[in-house]
Design a protein that fits this description.
The protein has about 400 residues and is of the alpha/beta class. The chain is built from 15 helices and 14 strands.
Length: about 400
């Protein structure tokens, strides 16, 4: 007789990785100051964070969160649909709409809920939702949870998108969903070409700008970067990256946002964004609207690392944003590289299948406006030493055949 829990007994990958010293997930940090963190009692350079503008520790942001708790308490203890809407939420939505140049905005408690709720609200039986093969998991889940038919096209390939849309009945509703910046590869969606293809086939467009807000288009995202804001039907963004909080939002036409507000189950059946988180985002908007030089600092650091990583010999793929992958390919070598870098005081994020395609394991690195040249040079020194030791980049000395425990504490 089959046992539902057989899958649990057969799940040994985590135990095996821990035994080899290369289990990289759910690691507890004692402290995080943005550019650095404290792990196991020692400081490490953090190049694995989405804190792009470095605002999580900004004094004005911290004070805004504390003031909100003093005024409103820690939670609304209810759904936005019922007792969980504060004037603070409405103020935030007005500010976000103005910032995005949109008629309206709507906040969700997480970015995941924003994508799932929006897609399932818009895509119904008889409709089609078309997504890039490298779209974020929250988009994929939203597509699969909708009552529509899901189709996928090759990554950033507009000819593939054209072909997929051509095979869909003309009288069917169609929603194309893409990331503005792809979270693993760090490359940008070609929105002008995507817009043209969507117009040709009568498809609506939704852009997930989780990694674009605060980064591209003077902080306003991918559509602003390309100047196609009026051609995007729905833009999604998160607060857990540049806005130093947690949560998500969508922006667009007022009637579109109002419809989603009354149809998105992830909004209606979840508790609302806590006051401190909403106030944090408002403070970040104040800072960003007053001075965009912080974005210039971010890009200076990103270009500095991109140039130096290329010179070291790392394969950084198609990255043209502050997200820079170090593509290694082999699962085990990726784990060993992660461990060697952490031993040397550099925190990165290893990503292995199914997070990436087979033989495309990588270390995801990302950079912030508050990294100093000292932080970045320290990281580059360790990246050079570990890369040469594991034959990831040109140089002498290979530890590829060594066990993870044999890697030096650099």
């Amino acid at each position: 007789m089959a046992d539902l829990f057989d899958k649990i007994h057969n799940f040994t990958a985590v135990k095996e990785a821990r035994a080899q010293g290369i289990y990289p997930y759910f690691l507890p940090l004692q402290n995080s100051e943005g550019a650095t963190a404290t792990f196991e009692g020692r400081e490490v350079v953090m190049i694995g964070s989405n804190n792009y503008l470095g605002l999580t520790t900004h004094p004005k942001v911290r004070q805004a969160a504390m003031d909100a708790i003093a005024q409103y308490g820690t939670s609304c203890t209810g759904s936005r649909f019922l007792n969980g809407t504060l004037e603070l939420h409405l103020e935030l939505e007005r500010r976000l709409a103005r910032f995005m140049g949109a008629e309206a905005a709507l906040t969700f408690t997480t970015g995941y809920q924003a994508n799932v709720g929006t897609i399932t609200a818009l895509v119904g039986k008889g409709d089609y939702v078309i997504c890039d093969k490298e779209d974020h998991a929250s988009i994929i889940d939203g597509c699969q949870m909708s009552y529509g038919e899901m189709r996928r096209f090759s990554h950033n390939d507009v000819s593939s998108l054209d072909a997929v849309l051509a095979r869909i009945p003309e009288n069917a509703g169609k929603l194309v969903v893409v990331d503005g910046v792809y979270s693993m590869g760090g490359d940008i969606a070609p929105l002008p070409q995507i817009v043209a293809i969507c117009k040709k086939h009568g498809a609506r467009i939704m852009v997930d700008d989780a990694h674009s807000i605060g980064v591209l288009g003077n902080g306003r995202g991918t559509a602003a970067h390309f100047g196609v804001e009026d051609d995007i039907d729905v833009t999604m963004g998160t607060f857990s990256k540049s806005f130093a909080s947690v949560g998500g939002y969508i922006s667009g036409k007022a009637d579109t946002v109002e419809y989603i507000q009354h149809a998105a189950r992830s909004l209606i059946f979840s508790a609302s964004l806590p006051p401190a988180n909403a106030a944090t985002v408002l403070a970040c908007l104040d800072i960003l609207e007053a001075d965009t030089s912080i974005i210039e600092n971010l890009w200076d650091n990103a270009e500095y690392m991109r140039t130096n990583l290329k010179q070291l010999g790392y394969n950084i793929g198609r990255s043209n944003t502050p997200i820079i992958p170090l593509i290694i390919g082999d699962y085990m070598r990726t784990g060993m590289a992660w461990r060697g870098l952490l031993n040397g005081g550099v925190y990165t994020n290893p990503v292995v299948p199914p997070g990436v395609p087979p033989n495309m394991s990588l270390l995801r690195t990302s950079y912030t406006a508050t990294h100093t040249r000292q932080h970045l040079d320290r990281a580059l020194t360790v990246l050079d030493e570990v890369g040469r030791a594991l034959d990831l980049i040109p140089g002498e000395g290979s530890l590829y055949e060594a066990s993870a425990e044999a890697l030096p504490v650099l």
